[in-house]
Amino acid sequence: MGVALLGGLWPAVTVAVFGSLLLNWYLTPPYHTLTIADPENALALAIFILVGVGVASVVDLAARRTLQAARSSAEADTLSALAGSVLRGEDTVVPILEQMRERFGMESVTLLERDGGGRGAWRPVAHAGDPACRGPGDGTSEVMVSETLTLGLRGPVLDAGYRRVLEAFAAQAAVVLDRQRLRQRAAEARQLEEGEAIRTALLAAVSHDLRTPLAAIKAGVTSLRQDDVEWSPADEAALLATVGEATDTLERLIDNLLDLSRLETRTVHPVPRPVSLDEIVPRAVAGVPPGSVVLDIPESLPLLVTDAGLVERAMANVVENAVKYSPHGAEVTVSAALVPALGPGAGHVVEVRVVDRGPGVSDEDKATMFLPFQRLGDSRPARVAGTPGVGAGVGLGLAVARGFVDAVGGTLTADDTPGGGLTMVVRLPVAAMPATPAPDRVEETA
After folding, report:
1. Phi, psi at residue 426, to the nearest 5°?
2. If you compute the radius of gyration of the chain from its CA atoms, what whole number of angstroms results?
């Protein structure tokens, strides 16, 4: 029985026969010979051999069934874990290979792909553990997935009983790889589609919005250069004011187009440094009409850790948009406060609120108002018609503002103003918490 447990059936049969010979030699008359004098002793020895062989067979069968049950349980556990990774939506190949390496005690598992549609050299696509296999022959085991994909395993040699589980892992790794590449192609297609949409909108902007200020500049300059017309000082001032307004509008449009191109090509690289908010906001509102914006910035706010130039451009676009849609004579309020950041233990941020009393924005439009070339309410007349520096644009201001705020690690969201209007909320990271907030505030009118 012991030999059957350790060595299997045939070693146990050999031991049973050898034991019967020892029994015959030492304990069966005549002693120390293989001759058996009594037939009953011969029958007893025969029964001894048969019982030994039978018991060895049963023990060997039980041991093999126990081993098969343990292996089946391990396979079921492994396949269950693999199915769980499928349900969890593993989107990369490496976690699948890492799970395979841990389950089978391998040093490394490498997914190899053959270039040239199955005729080129093998190259590793992904691997878990080190050292990775450079080809199918580098490992101790190999599992073919297809003509162009194979798994190379480096570690202990596995018997054929694990082949089914290895093939399941290999098939899942191939599926995840295909899914990953399909997502990459879909993302590239979306980028191409978005780029095409931006190019189409940019062409429309160039053909209309940029030509409008150019036409105004050309008309004003051409009128001033006429020798056959005697312009009064008031008329000359009006024409020069028109040229100046159109030039400012054209400059802002070009700046926004350049900023959008930087954001789209991901060439915006913020240079964060400690800076005070009361240095940024006054410069940001310098381009709006005098008396249209009221600033309410506490002096006790902590320093920001941000790129002052990007934040200034973002705030300028947000404020100009608020002034554009505010009723005539209504002031836009720009206030700031130190508030807790979203999430437990996230610290504090400086929150800047730009409040206008315009028509507001519906919840449906809030989802798209930060997209490029989106001008909400284009059919409505400008709220401040004839105001220098304020007018219709190509719908880039809020898109550029959100892009710059995101680039410096902040957030830009839209909220409703109580009583009517729109409130733009800008949250920016701070350098440090203030020791003791002071009640002093700086209130001025831009």
Report:
1. -110, 125
2. 41
Do 356 and 332 touch, CB atoms closer than 8 A? yes
- Cβ count within 10 A of residue 157: 7
143: number of Cβ within 10 Å:
25
Calculate the dihedral angle through the C-alpha atoms of 386, 390, 392, 398, rounding to the nearest 10 degrees: -160
Is residue 386 scored above 50 in pLDDT?
no
User: Residue 29 has which token pair?
Assistant: 């008359």
Beta-ladder partners of 55: none
* DSSP-assigned states of every residue in 59-99: HHHHHHHHHHHHHHHHHHHHHHHHHHHHHTT--SHHHHHHH
Say which residue, 366 or 434, is predicted with more confidence.
366
Residue pair 92/98 in contact by the 8 Å Cβ criterion: no
CA distance 388 to 243: 11
**d(C-alpha 194, C-alpha 366), whole Å:** 20
When mean pLDDT is compared across 163-172, 202-211, 415-424, the lowest value belongs to 202-211
259 pLDDT higher than 80? no
On the question of pLDDT at 443 being above 80, the answer is: no
Beta bridge partners, 149, equal: 113
Distances (CA, A) of 414 to 26, 376, 419, 427: 102, 13, 15, 12
What type of residue sits at position 81?
A
The DSSP 8-state label assigned to residue 409 in this structure reads: T
pLDDT for the residue 86: 56
pLDDT at 157: 77
Specify the pLDDT at position 336.
Answer: 92
